[in-house]
Amino acid sequence: MRHCNNALLAIVLAGAALSLSAQQTTKPAAPDQAPPLTVDRDPVRSPDANAPAPSRETVQKEGSGFILHTDVEEVVLNATILDDKGHLVQTLTKDDFQVFEDGVKQSIISFQHSDLPVSIALVVDNSGSMSKKRPAVNKSALDLIAASNPQDEAFVVNFSDEAFIDQEFTSNVNKLREGLSHIESRGGTALYDAVVASADKLSIDAKRPKQVLVLITDGEDNASTLNLEQTIRRVQQLSGPVIYSIGLLFGDEMSHSEVRHARRAMEMLSTETGGIAFFPKSLEQVDQIAAEVARDIRSQYTIVYHSTKPSTEPGFRRVQVSAESKGLGKLNVRTRTGYFPVVRKTKKPTAPQE
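Predicted structure:
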């Protein structure tokens, strides 16, 4: 890695040697194994796809032992509201919303409608078919950042059959431009692996509680160890991010069947997480879409409630949000469809050591 000391360099070289040996002697990763993210072209392994989602914890010492306390389960929803003409609605209050979890009405404990800073993953297809599209795509991605909150932070993931972090979290547009400029345009499309690895990174390293993943690709997945259902489940386990997909599916490179499969995957990734999938008919439309995504992110309502179910009760919990305000007609709410609770264990005080 850049500017690393000799000890770190030795560790990296050893890891690279082990990675190469593993590729030559072992089978591909199992479907429940999260894919690798590569930082500055040095191999780094992301968390297991079935690993518990990170949780906020505090430690209170008692004598020589300790008790681990966890926060009460809170569910945070970022919601976009549209009227029947598709226009953003930004005048609603807390009393205009109702939230249901598995059909049971929930009490909203916090409500906010403001331009909150966001942590953004820019996840861009770098496969061979993207070679001529990347300059326009890069410009649109940077325009999206420029139109966002100045306090936002973003990182860049370029992916083909592997995912590379080519720029760590930053608010510096020039650094993001440099990260997007790492264009190799080769290999397959490990889209699901890239999404899961990027979502894991957001859950671990993001400084902003509100998180967004912007996915730009021109094809269907053909190289991942994970499938679509596993990818959606992992993102739901992490309670985020909201995924905005931009599918560049025009042209003659794909069959009708391939286009249909790619559209379905991107629509499901976005719909299940509260985002939206866009399918421009030309590169010229991508810049307009990027501006729409930035506007959507900055116009969301943040709704928080305590679930009426204990966090120890496992299984997917379906969430429904409705909004109604006099004189506005039928309102459409876009938010994530549900979540998996984080099961947390409480440690008992340890016995003092003699």
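Summary: The chain has seven helices and 18 strands.
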